[in-house]
């Protein structure tokens, strides 16, 4: 029996992404206008987490008399419960506003979240650090029943941190209170609208001067590319989130498929949230507020292509959003997240485990793996 096996990962299943979007994230997921379909989506996430072997739970909370539920899956590492554990997370919200189908916002993030979990649990490997997968409820803003001049959002991640995550850390890592050192969380939101047409990407005119000042290299890149919406936007705070963001950037570039580009939006830690509101409108903000490293990956939502019209509208649908370019763009994002999490969680092959060869590897790659495995077996037999 081999002491270790060559383990292939990071070849996303387009079939899994497509069926997940089509079957569970193609209709409104709102607690008032379509509660049954929303429940169907949350149950699917929960059941998939369990099928992948994650320690799975709901985190229930109440807002203005309505019930909501975050879904959490935990993949424990060897360092679980110790000071050495550097937890890394992946998160995406699964709810929608009351009228949209929500395929891009945020069926895309949920499909990628589940694909990453599928990849990371389908090979014969373990890891030193713990991974947490989280599907957030009630990310979308809605008017309060009692104070209609106010709106509320990002509530699922807010309450998950205060009501579940921090107590969970205190329970399982009591010796690390005040000295916890997580790798951080990757937050997906609206991540599959790829458009390589000229002028398909916009920068809000009111924010153009701010963008030029804060991200001169990004603006130059967009200008040189005729403002094509062909990139994944990665938003992070440079000092605290730099390690996570840099690893994500490196893994993206290793994935090939150069037509799918990336732009890095590194923010100063002291930048006020109202400085660039488009970069502060998803669940990563709550992790920042709790001093937890987080990066936000997105197609830029209503600043790009079809989503300029379809963001929070009914046309964010399968017919509008599900095509080969978008699916492959989402696949590269999924693969990059899986590779980043594998690297930071320090995965390693398990003795005697069976490798899983995902779709997408060439016959040549498989033959090389078999030759290496055979050579190692011969060496072990001779030793």
How is this structure best described in words?
It contains twelve helices and twelve strands. The protein has a single domain, classed as Zn peptidases (Aminopeptidase), CATH 3.40.630.10. The chain has helices at residues 14-24, 35-51, 103-121, 155-172, 208-214, 216-224, 242-254, 284-289, 307-310, 318-321, 324-345, 363-382; strands spanning 55-63, 66-75, 88-93, 125-127, 131-136, 142-143, 151-152, 184-188, 231-237, 261-267, 294-298, 347-349. Mean pLDDT is 88; it is low at 1-8 and 353-373. The protein is globular. The protein is of the alpha/beta class. The strands form three sheets. Strands 1-2-5-3-8-11-9-10 form an eight-stranded mixed beta sheet, with helices on both faces. It has a two-stranded antiparallel sheet with strand order 4-12. Strands 6-7 form a two-stranded antiparallel ribbon. Helix 3 crosses helix 11 (324-345) and helix 7 crosses helix 11 (324-345). GO terms for molecular function: metalloexopeptidase activity. Residues 70-194 form the Peptidase M28 domain. Keywords: Membrane, Transmembrane, Transmembrane helix. The chain crosses the membrane at residues 356-375.
């Amino acid at each position: 029996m081999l002491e270790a096996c060559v383990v292939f990962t990071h070849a996303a299943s387009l079939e899994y992404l497509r069926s997940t979007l089509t079957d569970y994230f193609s209709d409104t997921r709102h607690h008032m206008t379509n509660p049954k379909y929303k429940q169907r989506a949350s149950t699917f996430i929960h059941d998939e987490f369990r099928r992948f072997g994650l320690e799975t739970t709901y985190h229930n909370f109440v807002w203005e008399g309505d019930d909501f539920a975050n879904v959490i899956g935990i993949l424990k590492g060897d360092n679980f419960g110790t000071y050495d554990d550097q937890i890394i997370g992946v998160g995406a919200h699964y709810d929608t506003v009351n009228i949209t189908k929500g395929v891009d916002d945020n069926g895309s993030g949920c499909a990628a979240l589940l694909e990453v979990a599928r990849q990371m649990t389908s090979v014969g490997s373990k890891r030193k650090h713990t991974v947490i997968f989280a599907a957030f409820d009630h990310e979308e803003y809605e008017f309060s029943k009692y104070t209609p001049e106010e709106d509320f959002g990002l509530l699922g991640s807010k309450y998950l941190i205060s009501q579940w995550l921090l107590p969970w850390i205190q329970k399982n890592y009591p010796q690390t209170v005040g000295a916890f050192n997580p790798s951080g969380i990757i937050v997906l939101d609206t991540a599959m609208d790829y458009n390589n047409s000229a002028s398909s990407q916009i920068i809000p005119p009111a924010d153009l001067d701010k963008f030029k000042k804060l991200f001169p290299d990004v603006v130059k890149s967009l200008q040189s590319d005729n403002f094509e919406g062909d990139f994944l936007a990665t938003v992070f705070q440079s000092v605290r989130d730099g390690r996570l963001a840099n690893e994500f950037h490196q893994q993206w570039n290793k994935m090939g498929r150069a037509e799918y580009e990336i732009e890095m939006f590194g923010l100063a830690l002291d930048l006020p949230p109202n400085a660039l509101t488009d970069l502060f409108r998803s669940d990563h903000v709550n992790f920042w507020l709790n001093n937890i490293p987080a990066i936000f990956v997105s197609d830029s939502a209503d600043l790009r292509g079809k989503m300029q019209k379809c963001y929070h509208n009914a046309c964010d649908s399968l017919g509008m959003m599900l095509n080969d370019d978008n699916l492959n763009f989402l696949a590269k994002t999924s693969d990059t997240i899986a590779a980043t999490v594998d690297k930071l969680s320090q995965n390693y092959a398990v003795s005697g485990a069976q490798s899983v060869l995902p779709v997408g590897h060439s016959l040549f790659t498989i033959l090389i793996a078999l030759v290496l495995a055979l050579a190692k077996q011969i060496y072990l037999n001779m030793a």
